Amino acid sequence: MKLYFKYVSILFRSQMEYRTSFILLSIGQFFVPFLVFVSMYFLFQRFNTIGGWSLYEVALCYGIIHMGFSISECFVRGFDSFSSLVVNGDFDRILVRPRSTILQVLGSKFEFTRIGRLSQAVIVFVYALSNLNIDWNFNKILTLIFMLASGIFIFSGIYMIGATLCFWTIEGLEVINIFTDGGREISQYPLSIYNKWIKRFFTFVIPFGTVNYLPLMFVLDKVEGNSLIYMFTPLLGMLFIIPCILLWGFGVRHYKSTGS
Amino acid sequence: MIQVKSLNKTFKVAKRNAGIGSAVKSLFKPQYSTIHALEDISFNIDEGEIVGYIGPNGAGKSTTIKVISGILVPDSGKCDILGLTPWKNRIDHVKNIGVVFGQRSQLWWDVPVIDSFNLLKDIYKIPTKDFNDNLDLLTSSLNISSILTTPVRQLSLGQRMRCEIAASLLHNPKILFLDEPTIGLDAVSKIAVRNFIKTINKEKNVTVILTTHDMSDIEALAERIILIGKGRILLDGSLTELKNKFATHKTLTVDFKENSSDINIEGTSILSRSKERIALSVDLNKVKVSEVISTLSNKIDIIDLSVDSRPIEEVIIDLYKEYQI
Description:
heterodimer; A: 260 residues; mainly alpha; two-stranded antiparallel ribbon; 70% helix; B: 325 residues; alpha/beta; Rossmann fold; Alpha-Beta Plaits; 2 domains; four-stranded antiparallel sheet; 11 helices; 13 strands; 36% helix
């Protein structure tokens, strides 16, 4: 863990060598998704509720998924941009060092400009919470933390799957963005507004439903019956990372390297 | 120390003809051809040896280095390095080795060299005292103390290579793999790198395995060479043996007072000839150099002469020709 922070520190210093670019990119990262939220806002001005969910409830959904997304994009960027490590042979370098490949790939790149996206997500999140009348208790706060963690784990898992594919092919990896960007766009809204197969796919295959929709039912007191199950769904969603890690280990053994 | 036994490795490579038509075709029905990168590679290396691993491009040099440094998993074969199998005990194995890839950097591009070294200290969990001792030794013998605070991207290639070598030795490895360490370096840096490799081999008894296309590296460093071509080991022996086997000719260059008479000596062939100078290739199996000289001195008035062995490059070219690689 200490080493991980050393990686963060050295790459942060690298990034600060290019300060202007960092500031401009961060501002861009703030406004692009923020416009998405603005359009969401006007949608609700027109329709008031969607599938029985109010603007603030959906804003909470949006805030959580975007926080999870931007944090994972910042700190798991190494897996997201893994193809470049394979193409220029830097993965060789990682393999000749006595540390786990996962830690080193994580440490190979951080995208600090995602601070822009993260801050807009936090603003929306706070805006939503301050306008909702929620009966707060310890369990609900804990659930919010679970939700955020679950989001980070699931996005990271998808990045790892995408990275693992690089061991076999470098081409056509944009496919994986269907699940990261697509999953993010879908989960900006509660899953209940979609049709059945989308709901099932994003609950049981890639469990984005456990990041916001299911636990939010608990936080917003929308559940009848045993609500504790809903509280712990984010933890189940986090299990998604396990097969991803196993798949990664399998992929590393099939690494072919590039000629030099 | 290093025991490699019948390693095999094949790669599947997508075949594609030129042109957009075949590009589209390969999209739907890719064709693969199999390349035998390594076929039945075996060798043993003892502690403290410097081994030159040579062969033309695409012969399998880098693949071998990658297998024994734990990067690639071979299809079959055994490898035992200090009691460990590289692709099975990767993490323990790589603690014992240092690797320098001449064409790739292991330093962090945008930060000062010393920051990279400090990060490596944490990656390899080097105790502070060892680290400081090593750093002192390496910076003074590689003469890099003045550039430690310069960002890597601002270093010249020669400076960077010296830093790369220092970086690969910070954790006191017992084996050092050098993949084309002198590629692109100027004469001064090349000699500095070579001398340093010699020094650590002598003083710290580090085993060195070196791949290069620069035969003067081999001549300066390696006592033993392993020649690989098309994935097979073709030759494994000392450099002197190799030279004796292939250096059957010497070049005799003679300057003399103007003379245009015919010079034709048994066992020699004329490489070039002018009014005042002649270069002869002497076949040592047929005639001695001293005999040629005495014959010559009878015919012409010699001013100066020199005898040269064939450069190692030519020997290697002959070798490649003989094995058809």
